[in-house]
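Recap for those who missed Tuesday's class. We walked through two folding examples back to back. For each one, the amino acid string is listed first and its predicted structure tokens come directly after. Nothing is annotated here on purpose, so try labeling regions yourself before you check the end of the notes.
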Amino acid sequence: MNKRELTALIAERTGFKKKDVHTTLQATIDCISEVILAGERVTFMGFGSFYTQERGPRMSYNVYSKERRHLDSRKVIKFKPTLQKRR
């Protein structure tokens, strides 16, 4: 499912206009992204948590050119689903 399909589904279930749902959904995604990039955790009870994690430096290998190169450490976004299923 992509953002357009999600927007249509939410509009169908709520009765709101697709344009309004799209604006709200985009604002929600932007806010979540800002919080995660600031290093904070975003948790939705019954769904899961988004957070950043430091990935250490490593060696990379390109299978086509047979070239090895060093990759610096970086932050990556992780998602951990809630173990309980809500009904």
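Example two. Treat it independently of the first, because the proteins are unrelated.
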Amino acid sequence: MDYAIGIDLGTTNSKVVLCELPSCRVVYLEKFTSPKIVDGDSIDFDIKQMIPCLKQALKACSMHVGNESIEFISIASVGESGVLVYDDGSYLERAIAWFDKRGGSYADALHAEGLAERFYGVTGIPAFGNYGLFKLLWMRDHGVDLKHATWLPLGDFVAWWLSGVKGQDESLASRTFAIDVKSGKTANEILERYGMSAGLFPGLVESGIPRGMVRPVLADELGLPRSCEVCVSGHDHMSGSVACGLDPAREALNSTGTSEGILTVNEAPVLTQESFASRLSNGRYVRRDSYSYYASLPTAGFSLAWLSGMLDIDEDVFFDEMPGKLHRRYLEGEFDGHEMVFIPHLRGSGPPDRRVDARGCLYGFTGTTTRDDLYYATVLGLVFELKRLYDCMLGAQVRETVKVIGPAIKSPLWMQLKSDVLDVRIEACRVRESVARGAVMLTAQKKGLDAKPQIETISYSPCPERTKYLEKLYETTYLPMTRTVAAYECKTR
């Protein structure tokens, strides 16, 4: 039997999965905490520590199948982090985390100078400090040598480490602010403005297409066949959409994890004044001649992990027992009339009012507030924040169904609230390791293999009465509170 390996380089955890071909069924999993270096507010991925973790995981996969053939490795990763690789084969051993705020001043300057909208028409993404170009500017201005260097998004860096071949996956390159989204060529006008060399960015490579084979020395060390090919499947959310069989015509994807995003797929980028004003991102999708329309919220699972830690509740109780219990209480209307307002800006805010310096807020607790009330308020706040994004992103183009992937699907409370607040059918897609499996599936499909999504779904339908009640709460309480807090934050900057 033939196999393939999928790699998911995530914010909190990274996964390396072994899949059968052509079914892409996961048969073995290795998981490790994505290593980071934290220095105050600055957070870097620790590349020096990541490499041995990847080696151990890949060795374990190869040992699991023995003499069976591993045809390829396909890699998905977070979108905005990258590694500088030098011509002599050395590289920086740390990469600024995608959510790190150090590039913010450069992006803010473009808005102040009135250039952000013009450049949006080129890159398809709003000027925001997370993107690769602004990280590079910060690095250059803080003493990092960019001469004889190449910027490789995180997934592309791992592909280079494995194969020795440099390239940029199209969907990952879309998160640099240095690529023309329509043509796929380097955005020279933007780079010239900053005195940056176009040579920093290698050419684009179609998602899921082989780059080359694993370097012989590394293949022997890891127990991989020397014929094993290396591919990059792209941005993690896009890769996950493949695993759940997203239908662009009638479905949107809600990908959840530490953060969460909404993705739709279109035949052309959406470059309107409205999409720019709402800070919505276009990109080159992982399938040819398609474009992603995507935006993310910095916190989702992160908010719940924060609450669990703050309340010192056992994780099994918090994530496995409490959601079912609170779901039943929610359906009985037990929280109606005394909801708290939780604004989940623990890592800044997402579209349509995207600000790196936004702060979270909890309003309405009393002396009788319980931990159940706090849990419910946190989930409701996450869903209300998602509704802000959903409404400005889709407008009248509402999809019939929103497919949800990631850890949020384990919470019936979270899923039902999404359905009731968004007033749309929710399909919780139980796909084991959707990002890593999607990476394998995309490459398998582009190789002509019969790799079809095999998913179990749980459907949640909106209740008209609850939808009406929550719509009023959203309009009369959540939105006014959000605007008031934002106005206060602007005054105190």
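Answers for example two:
The chain has a mean pLDDT of 94.
Residues 109 and 115 are 9 Å apart (CA to CA).
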